[in-house]
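Reviewer 2 asked us to include a model.

Predict the structure of this chain.
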Amino acid sequence: MSELKTKGEEWRARIFKMILFFGIMGMIVLCVGVALVSKTFTEILAPAPTPTPASTPATGRAH
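Predicted model (structure tokens):
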């Protein structure tokens, strides 16, 4: 009968497991969120692409 836990010990173990589970899930969500925000800011702050000579309009010369 020494293997039986009291109600308090059971609840303490459940609460610890819940805190551990939500802590790990929170860290995963936080990492994904930071990655997405970082990617977004990288795209926003990137310099505008300069047009290449092939994409510039013709200057009126005869081909």
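The radius of gyration is 29 Å. The helical segments are 7-45. We have added this to the supplementary material.
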